[in-house]
Amino acid sequence: MQHPPVEPSDAVVLDAVRRHWSPAVDAVRYLPVGFGAHHWAALEQGRERLFVTLDLDSPRHTLASLEGAYRAGVALAGGGLEFLVAPVPASPDEVTVAVAGGRLSVTPWVSGTRPEDGSAVAPLVARLHAAPPPPDLPVWAPLVGPDLPDRLRDLTAAPWRGGPHGETARVLVGEALVAVARWTADYLSLAARTDPTTWVPTHGEPGVHNQLMTTDGRLLLVDLESLKLAPRERDLAPLLPLEASFRTAYDGPPPDADLLAMFDLEWRLDEIGQYAAWFAGPHGDSPDDRTALGGLREELSRPDRPTR
Q: Residue 33 and residue 282: Cα distance in Å, rounded?
């Protein structure tokens, strides 16, 4: 997120990091990066040492599933998947700690940049999919229920006057209600056909925004809050359209076109639901608000992904 949260303050974050991870940390600096979670750099004498994340409860994960996902990330990284940037446990019993209604976690600070070739992650994703699932790994379930179209219809029935983009967003969602109903029906039909016996550990969002090329040439996967046992297409859906070379570089079974379409619909519908809630309530005109409005427009207007 581009702006720090109202809570917790930097002082609260610093205190939590010092108590649970490293008393040598003497300052934190908010990082205006990403979207959906808040991040800080934890410093020792002016040098970055830890990357701090505050995840909040959301439709995509509960606070309990966050702990399970991060615990699974620690197990997977320790079990041979060295390319996963796993959290540093806060204690023998917890990887994360409760702070300001969310869960705070830290990873080692790793310097690097986004890679130019997003398909280079293919071998890493294949290794993740081939790994034995840790016992704490959360299990995927459909994110979107059959009530989404009705909830959006009810939500758009009254003006959205909580901020400058409310009415624009309400009109956009209202004009797409028929499409949302069709997308929801298609999604639930496809989700009912999944076979849990074929599910594997998945990252959830392995696109280039969660890839890091280190200064010494190692490619890493970051942001493990979305780890789940799920159909492998959960990872492949966002990657295959972006990099044609990924399809040949991925050393795994051929993806199922129906499941690729299902996860594309899941992302789209969940984004629409979250953005609708955002603009139906109090909001402003910050860069985060404008990014959210652009995201809503994109999800409502982009082409459908074909099934078989």
A: 22
- The string of pLDDT tens digits covering residues 150-201 is 999 999 999 999 999 999 999 999 999 999 999 999 999 999 999 999 999 9
Closest Cα to residue 277, out of 44, 58, 43, 2?
58
Domain span holding position 73: 1-109
Residue 285 dihedral angles phi and psi, to the nearest 5°: -130, 40
What are the backbone angles phi and psi of residue 186, rounded to the nearest 5°?
Answer: -65, -45
CATH number at residue 220: 3.90.1200.10
The pTM (predicted TM-score) of the whole model is 0.89
Separation CA 238–CA 204 (nearest Å):
9
Q: What is the Cα–Cα distance from 290 to 283, expressed in whole angstroms?
A: 10
Same domain, 100 and 126: no
Same domain, 184 and 281: yes
Number of compact structural domains in the chain = 2
